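Re: that chain you flagged

S.,

Sorry for the slow reply, it's been a week of failed gels. I finally had a moment to sit down with the sequence you sent. For the record, here it is as I used it:
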Amino acid sequence: MEGGSWAPGRWSCLPGITLLALASLLSCLLTSSQAKVYSRCELARVLQDFGLDGFRRHSLADWVCLAYFASGFNTAAVDHEADGSTNNGIFQINSRKWCKNLKPNVPNMCQMYCSDLLNPNLKDTVICAMKIIQDPQGLGTWEVWRHHCQGKDLSDWVDGCEL
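Prediction finished late last night. Pasting the structure tokens below so you have them in one place:
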């Protein structure tokens, strides 16, 4: 048999790779079909309904500001980091510590899949965010919040919203 010919077992992982690629593609298509970009006031009302206003001494305006600078209010936002981790959803929650993606042995402190953070109903996202801000840094855990929201007058983020 020639060195370049096909042999059974040589490509035995090909079906697994194909299946993984197909599953990833399907996941992206399903996620994008469920994507929602909230308006400022709509998001403020939803976050208020989930009890985030005043949670751990952070105002509703803090959360709305964070969501804007993290994702532009887009529930399906995913940012890929150089280390292979991803930032997921409206608050860009990182897979390195907080959620489970395809990498094994990650801490998964929120006990959920990263894809759960892309759901437009925000329930899982809010549950995870509430765990994250129990860290001593609070919202300061998010670099975008520290740079764009912390220590600023944020009243405009909820001004005019019927809350």
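What I noticed first: The radius of gyration is 20 Å.

Talk soon,
D.
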